[in-house]
Every structure is written in C-alpha cells, then in structure tokens.
Write the structure tokens for this entry.
Amino acid sequence: MTPQRDEVPLRVLYQDDSCAVVDKPSGMIVHRGWANDERDLLRVTRDVLGRYVYPLHRLDRGASGAVLFALNEDAARILNRSFADRTMDKRYLALTRGHPPEHGFIDHPIPKAPGEERVPAQTSFSRIGTFERYALVTAVPKTGRLHQIRRHLKHISCPLIGDVRYGKGEHNRFFRDQYALDRLALHAAAVRFVHPLHGQRVTVRAPLSGNFADCLARLSLFDVANAAIQADFPTE
C-alpha cells in the first residue's frame, strides 16, 4: 500500500536546547485552527522531539520546508519578538506560470486574515530559471501576511503552480498530468534567525525532496534551485 503524504517521517533540520527547525511535508497543517486534521506539525514535532514545542509561525498546508519552533518560554518570547522586529529572514522557492522580472519588489497591501482590512505587505523576489512559459523564483517576504507570496505573485500575473485558490486550473492540471506534481509549488528553503541564547545568527536550510524535486529535475531547474537553497542571506 502506498503511504499517505502525511505519513512521511518528519525530518529535524536543526535542534538545540532552545529551538528546533523541522521540514514540514506538503499537505500537513502547522497546527489546528479552522482545520481539524488528525495530525498536525506541532503535535508530530512534539512527539518526535519528546517535549513541548512553541509554534512561532505558519506555513501553508500545501507548502513544504523549514518551520521554526521554540522549546521553552524564554526562547518563544525572544523569537516572537524577532518576527515582530523583522529580524527573521526566510527564503522561499516558487514555480510560477509566467515570467516575472529578473528582480523585483512587491509592495501591495493584503488582508492580514480573511475578511479583515488590508495591511502593508512587501516581498522581494528574483527569477532564477525558466522553462517555456514557467519560471522558478526565490521570494523573501519582508512581512508575514496570510498567503503573502501566493497573493503577491498573482498580483504581478505570475501565480504559483498547484495553487487552487490563486492559480490557474489548466496549468495545475498540466503539471499534475505531465510531472506528477499534485501540490502547491512553494517550498520554504531557508530560515535565518538570531539565536535566543547566544545571539548569533543561525541559518537552517531545507533540501528539496519528493515530487517537487522530481518535477524541477525534469524541467532542468533542480540545480539552480539547490544553489538558491545553499546561497547565503545578504549581510547587513
């Protein structure tokens, strides 16, 4: 019997006494909210690490990649402050329909939550590869809004492949049929944070795997994607 997607063993990318970074599989929610899934990343991480964990941020159900948890109250307080102060850096990989400019900065307000007032939101991006009418993009959000990268790339007419809310059905079906990509083409490739104990910057990377990696390999985009994962964040 073929394992279900949420049965994939959880990969712990980084762990110490203060925090941990895990690689969320596509299809799994971070923690219970509107959904009532039997398994969520928070509880799976808690069980794998054998200790209580403190959620710090979300990642869309369909996305994969690096998610940071605090392991005690002091670390949670400090890391939450770093999100508010925008000293936390995250880099995403996204496969889009359409070619965005080589580099760009999107400053477009979006609702913080469904039905709420629009608030400022900014994302910088770079186009790092193309295949026919599609493009591989790195995106670095400067704010943390609901579906920010998905909404911003749609705003510049380059929606994500596999995005059933903001994307295009015919392109999603094409990638599902031709490349077995049946998920959102968004991966949290790297996260950089100031460690809550010693104050040094820590960078954790999440390697590509599964059908997203297979798809990019068939598009001859895997090597450039891997290089983007391994690239350093800009120094300040």
